[in-house]
């Protein structure tokens, strides 16, 4: 492996750095965007049960905020349960924008790596081509410099694509996963508002 890196020249180090960052983001998002972490099953029924048992207690709100991103939406709704339906929905939407931003964390960086890796490979290719042309002189061709230029050009092109392709695949996957999670969280939050507001309204009657 080290011989390949040496043959690829210094441009390969930018691609290696990009691959390390890309792998770190991929593994981090694979863990952080699990459904059981973001929108665990049964949280809605558990929240409704605890609210009916003791109302919007500070302990309940704190527990929801620490539980999961979906719990933070529920906490925003429960905290404003005494307001109108519109007030509850606005509070959840405001918190939802913050949650969405956190779910999309690092995805812009991953997308940038996916887009820039082929260009970094192209930079290595151009540098390799410069070495190839530099191998030509009045006395003929320098075989060692020619071989080095070809190695730099080919290895950088290949490594750039090797980094870019999986990075783009996971970027698209994570974007779709975040969108699906946000839709599900929104549906559950709306259901929470309807149930709590309906119970409060019926209780006053």
TrEMBL record:
Coiled coil: none annotated. The chain crosses the membrane at residues 12-31, 106-130, 150-171. The keyword Protein transport applies. InterPro entries: ExbB/TolQ_transport (IPR050790), MotA_ExbB_proton_chnl (IPR002898). Belongs to the exbB/tolQ family. Keywords: Cell membrane, Membrane, Protein transport, Transmembrane, Transmembrane helix, Transport. This is MotA/TolQ/ExbB proton channel family protein. It is a multi-pass membrane protein. Residues 67-186 form the MotA/TolQ/ExbB proton channel domain. It is found in: Cell membrane; Membrane.
């Amino acid at each position: 492996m080290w011989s390949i890196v040496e043959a690829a020249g210094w441009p390969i180090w930018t691609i290696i750095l990009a691959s390390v960052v890309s792998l770190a983001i991929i593994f981090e998002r694979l863990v952080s965007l699990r459904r059981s972490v973001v929108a665990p099953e049964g949280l809605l029924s558990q929240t409704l049960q605890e609210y009916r048992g003791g109302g919007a207690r500070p302990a309940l709100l704190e527990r929801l905020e620490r539980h999961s991103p979906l719990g933070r939406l529920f906490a925003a709704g429960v905290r404003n349960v005494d307001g109108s339906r519109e007030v509850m929905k606005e509070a959840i939407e405001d918190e939802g924008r913050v949650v969405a931003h956190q779910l999309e964390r690092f995805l812009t960086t991953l997308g940038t790596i996916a887009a820039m890796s082929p260009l970094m490979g192209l930079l290595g290719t151009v540098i390799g081509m410069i070495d190839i042309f530099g191998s030509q002189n009045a006395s003929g061709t320098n075989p060692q410099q020619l071989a080095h230029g070809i190695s730099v050009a080919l290895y950088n092109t290949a490594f750039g694509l090797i980094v870019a392709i999986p990075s783009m695949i996971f970027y698209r996957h994570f974007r779709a996963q975040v969108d699906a999670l946000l839709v599900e969280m929104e549906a559950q939050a709306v259901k929470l508002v309807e149930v709590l507001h309906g119970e409060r309204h019926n209780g006053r009657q």
